[in-house]
Structure formats: structure tokens, C-alpha cells
Amino acid sequence: MGLGVAIFKLSGLGNDPFNGMAMALAEYIGFSYATFLIMLNLGLFVAQFFTGRKFIGAGTVVNAFLLGYIITYFYDSALGLFGEPQVLWQQVIIVVAGVVVISLGVSLYQTSNVGISPYDSLSLIMRDYVPKIPYFWHRMFTDTICALICFLFGGIVGLGTLVSAFCLGPIVQFFDVHVSEKLLAKGRKDIQNSART
């Protein structure tokens, strides 16, 4: 996920809504992004603790406390290696790569049941409370709110933000069905076969 967010940032066309919002608010307040992200995640963790405790695990801790630093590392490394993209078609390709990478990352760690980040748990909690509405609509709702806050606080809301706000949920769901759940099923089967031998 950290790599996906860094790719988005490198594009210069806007980030995924949550991290774009965090970057905009951090700059507005005058905090570093990584520090502000920890503070924001702590606030969201309170809601997660009371309404979605089952989503808390090691993945929650890694996302809440380390993701900002991981993103900064990947972004600085990519910027040093490749520099900023100079033309629009390069930026668009980078946005597409960012959507795929972050969607796969979200799908893998959500499906593996090792704990969900405080923000990502919001749409899952909403899905549990309102199961008639598919997950991707809940994800689109939370992402759209974040994109609006990003815009209001002077953040970059561009192609990357819009693609994330409207496509992240469906693409995560696609990876859930076609990649993550199949990997987990294969892993369980391999463990069962190993136990028999």
C-alpha cells in the first residue's frame, strides 16, 4: 500500500483520497505528513475500537504507525531514481499503476485478516452495519468525503484522486474475488496437505 500511495504522489495528479486529505491537512497545520498520519490514525482507531474491534490486528498497527514513513521512503526513492514525470501521458500511466498497486495492497491485507487500518476499516464497518449495500459503495462514500476535505484544504485533487474515489472500491473487490481469496484458499489447502503428510 505504501508503494501505491508513493506512486500516486509521484504522478502529481492527486493521491488516493485518504492520503491526499492527510497530506493537505498536514501541510495546512504545519506538521510532517508521517507525524500527522499517526495522529489522524489514532483518532480513527478510537472509532474502530468501539465499532469494529474484529478488524484490529498487526496490520492495524503497521498501517497506523509505520505507513507514513514507508510512503515517504518509497516516494523519496522513486523521485531520486526517476525524477518527476514531465508529460501528461507519463503521469496517467503512473496513476494507473498506483491504482492497481494500492488496490491489490488493500485487498491482500484486508482479506488476510491480520488487521485493517483504522481508515480502511470504516467502509468494512459500514458494510457490516448496512449489509444490503455492497462494499464498494461504502468505500466510494468514504473516499469521496476525503477527496472533498482534501480539496477544501488546498490539496491536489486531480485525476489520481478522482480515479481512486470512484474506482478503488470496485478494483479492491475485483482483487478480493480473483486474487486474494484464491491465494488464501490455496494457502489453506497447502497447509492441510502438509498436515496430512
Can you give a write-up of this model?
This protein is mainly α and 197 residues long. It has one domain (2-196). The protein is 81% helix and 0% strand. The chain has helices at 2-11, 17-29, 33-51, 58-82, 88-111, 118-129, 135-152, 159-196. The protein starts with a helix and ends with a helix.
The pLDDT mean sits at 87
The total of beta strands comes to 0
Specify the number of helices.
Answer: 8
Strand content: under 5%
Show unreliable segments: none
Short overview:
The chain has 197 residues and is mainly alpha-helical. The protein has helices spanning 2-11, 17-29, 33-51, 58-82, 88-111, 118-129, 135-152, 159-196. The mean pLDDT is 87.
Please specify the SSE layout and strand pairing.
Blueprint: H1 2-11, H2 17-29, H3 33-51, H4 58-82, H5 88-111, H6 118-129, H7 135-152, H8 159-196
Helix pairs in contact: 1-4, 1-5, 2-3, 2-7, 3-4, 3-6, 5-8, 6-7, 7-8
